[in-house]
Design a protein that fits this description.
Blueprint (H helix, E strand, L loop, with lengths): L2 H12 L6 E4 L1 H8 L3 H11 L6 E6 L5 E6 L3 H12 L5 H13 L5 H10 L10 H20 L1
Antiparallel strand pairs: 1-3, 2-3
Helix pairs in contact: 1-3, 2-3, 4-7, 5-6
Length: 149
């Protein structure tokens, strides 16, 4: 098993039914696992993203820590994704977000297929890429909002 998998599993084990927010001391966790603190950062930024239903908050200073909050409901996970999209999104990123939503069972297979089809470059053919990505982001956000209503 890779070190990043071990770190991710250990962080996931810290969550329970009563606790949707955990606090991590990066240096303590790194020394516990025998790795460098940057590996902890890598796992947190790559596996605990808004698209996957997590919010990260970092506190700096003496004894700084990282708070990871897990979205408690499907709606809050989708809202977190909407908030993370920004003003534009390319087809590849939209598709990755849709796959993550489907993988975590926030949307079903049919909805995932519809979202992928709706956000495809072929729908925006002829538009400059920057305009295409802006329109795709607006449409994607609106579709996600309609899904949670």
């Amino acid at each position: 098993m890779k070190m990043s998998d071990i770190i991710a599993d250990m962080i996931l084990d810290m969550f329970d039914e009563n606790n949707s927010t955990i606090q991590i001391q990066r240096n303590d966790l790194a020394s516990q696992l025998g790795c460098v603190p940057s590996q902890i950062n890598y796992v947190i930024t790559s596996r605990f993203t808004p698209e996957q239903g997590y919010r990260i908050e970092s506190r700096r200073g003496g004894g700084g820590c990282i708070y990871i909050t897990r979205a408690e409901t499907k709606s809050s996970a989708i809202v977190a994704l909407i908030n993370s999209i920004g003003a534009s999104i390319d087809e590849r990123s939209a598709k990755a977000n849709i796959y993550n939503l489907n993988y975590h069972n926030y949307i079903d297979d049919k909805t995932a297929k519809l979202l992928i089809a709706a956000t495809a470059d072929s729908n925006l053919h002829g538009l400059p890429p920057e305009v295409r990505n802006t329109i795709r982001a607006k449409q994607f956000k609106q579709m996600l909002l309609a899904y949670i209503d």
